[in-house]
Design a protein that fits this description.
The chain is α/β, with parallel strands linked by helices. The protein is about 35% helix and about 25% strand.
């Protein structure tokens, strides 16, 4: 029996809920459909059964949520949390006779032909007829390829009730009521269909009408899905209804039908021709694939306006999908391509710069020591002499520097970046800094009308080089989305934590705990080495036992095998511990363990280990001075 799932958010937390009309029962153990689907793939569990098994959480009123009277709001029924680029939205057109006829008429409209115009076949109708003739191959065979189009990544997929935008450059925008398949790619590259959902694919039909070759560009628009993901739905004959509301009136509506019984291609043929491309079978990737529309209001001469509401409903697919239409102000202003600026090329900044360049971003770099920056010129970066010069023309300015003082000098100093930053630029401070300095910088940025994200990173030199950092972001999520693609080029995870300073606080909490663990491990290692126990055996037992952690494993290895490779210096960790202590004190918490750990770090720095890797803290215990 099919199950219906929705995704919810209250602004700080997320839920997946099982639809049990008129209620929603939240799942325990999965905060997103993506998490749930991954669990099921890894354990070979049926997703519908697992959803029912986990539906033991709180019960919400679906009416309250759907009608906007709850703190919880509906999300799109699928996403990849924190990584929208891992979701691909595409589709297949010319699968339904109704839309094929309308597009045939659309593309004939401006043609000057002889009286028997009905005998003229456009490319649209030819493709439809090819589907009728060869779109349903026998099992084990491959049919003809359908029309295929790309819409965008997960950032173009909107939730129910979010506005579908007619962007400034568009000629129009029109609903396309469709069903869509939702797929997750397993670790071995196998695509799994995890469910179906109703959607509004939305397109610029006027632009497409000018020439069939405009189809690709006409599809690069927002779209919507939901509210529900149906797991285990049949795809035979599915009746539906689409309508356009203007004010309190319905200005257009039509009964529609979808499913294989109403399409010229089989579902298997559509799926084969989408997933035959190796790039569409990347492990962990999610695909939303629209299957085509049966009818369009554009074919009836309807032109959507600001405030109109498009409603899509298919039988068996849950509550109606409703989206208002937003008409952006028309603009003839050309888009200018601007570069990114990176301030600071230490161990972390160097890896980040390399990955930005690999991803194709135009990059300007600055470093206090120019010789280190010059090495990146060979990779295609522009090298600036000052922070102010680096940010000229940059739409994103990212800084990753040693401490508050270095950051303050780069942003607010004599040749500082802030005063020279372009209007509309987004500032990202990724240094491990004190919340007090982040507040000061944010106020200075606001005074210039600029947006700031505080986004320190976790990970060390190796993760920076491999593009596997994690960004801890404080600031506006809308601003984050503007620069997300650049951050994704350097990271494996982007966590949005709340307002400005949230990133700094989380990073200091992280490094405080790392520092305390490091100090205790150093003491334990010195004790272990003098205890007569087999050191390697003891370390393996600790790693496998309750004290085990990624930090214990990596630091134990470095303390016993590699003290020379510097990933994160003792001086920087001691600085972070001091910042953490001060930040916690402001909340009334005395980090006594931080005080003791920093004392040990300071001893190691005084002994000459400050610029060496933090694992060297063990050396002052191995070789104590009399």
């Amino acid at each position: 029996m099919p199950v219906s799932l929705v995704q919810l958010s209250n602004g700080t937390a997320r839920r997946v809920a099982l639809v049990e009309e008129p209620h929603l029962r939240c799942l325990d153990g999965a905060s997103s459909v993506y998490d749930l689907a991954q669990q099921c793939l890894q354990k070979s569990l049926p997703m519908s059964e697992q959803a029912r098994k986990l539906a033991t959480g709180e019960t919400l009123s679906y009416d309250e949520v759907y009608n906007g009277r709850s703190a919880w709001r509906l999300l799109a029924p699928i996403d990849v949390p924190g990584a929208p680029s891992r979701l691909l939205v595409a589709g297949t057109g010319l699968t339904h006779l109704g839309s094929a006829r309308q597009r045939q008429a659309m593309h004939l409209a401006d043609q000057k032909a002889a009286p028997k115009k009905e005998e003229v076949l456009t490319d649209s109708m030819r493709m439809f007829q090819w589907g009728v003739e060869q779109g349903r191959p026998a099992e084990g065979e491959i049919g003809i390829a359908p029309e295929w189009f790309y819409k965008g990544d997960g950032s173009c997929l909107l939730a129910p009730f979010e506005a579908l935008e007619i962007p400034p450059h568009a000629e129009d925008g029109g609903e396309e009521a469709e069903l869509a398949g939702v797929y997750l790619i397993a670790q071995d590259g196998t695509p799994f269909r995890i469910g179906l959902a109703q959607g509004d694919e939305f397109s610029d039909h006027k632009f497409e009408k000018r020439n069939y070759l405009n189809l690709a560009g006409s599809k690069l628009r927002t779209c919507s899905l939901g509210p529900e993901l149906i797991v285990g739905a049949e795809f035979g004959h599915i009746s539906g209804h689409v309508r356009i509301e203007r004010g309190d009136k319905t200005i257009w509506e039509q009964e529609i039908a979808s499913g294989e019984a109403n399409m010229c291609h089989s579902l298997a043929n559509l799926e084969h021709h989408h997933f035959k491309f190796e790039g569409h079978r990347q492990p962990g990737q999610v695909h939303v694939h629209f299957f085509g529309a049966d009818a369009l209001s554009f074919g009836s001469g309807i032109v959507l306006e600001e405030g109109d509401v498009a409603e899509v409903r298919f039988e068996g697919f849950g509550r109606s999908l409703r989206n208002p239409i937003h008409q952006s102000v028309k603009s003839n202003q050309p888009v200018s391509v601007r570069s990114l600026a990176l301030l600071g090329l230490g161990k972390m900044g160097s890896g980040m710069a390399t990955n930005l360049l690999k991803a194709g971003f135009p990059l300007t770099v600055w470093n206090r020591t120019r010789a280190k920056a010059a090495a990146f010129a060979a990779q295609g970066a522009r090298v600036a002499d000052t922070p102010a010069e680096a940010v000229k023309g940059a739409q994103l300015v990212l800084a990753i520097l040693a401490d508050d003082n270095a950051s303050r000098e780069a942003w607010l100093g004599k040749h500082g970046a802030l005063a020279a930053a372009e209007p509309g630029a987004v500032l990202v401070e990724s240094s491990t800094a004190s919340p007090a300095w982040i507040v000061e910088l944010s106020i200075a940025a606001q005074a210039r009308g600029l947006e700031l994200l505080d986004a320190p990173v976790t990970g060390s030199r190796v993760q920076a080089e491999e593009g596997k950092l994690s960004f801890l972001v404080g600031g506006s999520e809308q601003v984050l989305n503007k620069v997300r693609s650049a951050l994704e080029a350097m990271s494996q995870k982007i966590a949005h934590l709340g307002p400005v300073t949230s990133g700094a606080k989380m990073k200091l909490l992280n490094n405080f705990l790392c520092g305390v663990q490091l100090a205790s491990l150093a003491e334990g290692m010195a004790w272990l080495e003098r205890s007569g126990l087999d050191r390697d055996q003891a370390i393996e037992l600790l790693k496998a036992g309750a004290p085990g952690s990624p930090l214990l494993a990596s630091m134990a290895y470095r303390m016993t095998n590699d003290l020379e490779t510097a990933n994160f210096s003792l001086t920087l960790l001691a600085k972070d511990m001091a910042y953490a202590h001060a930040a916690a004190e402001e909340t009334g918490v005395d980090l006594t363990t931080a005080t003791n750990a920093k004392h040990l770090l300071d001893r190691a720095i005084a002994a000459g280990y400050g610029d060496k890797d933090m694992a060297n803290v063990v050396e002052v215990l191995r070789h104590p001075k009399p």
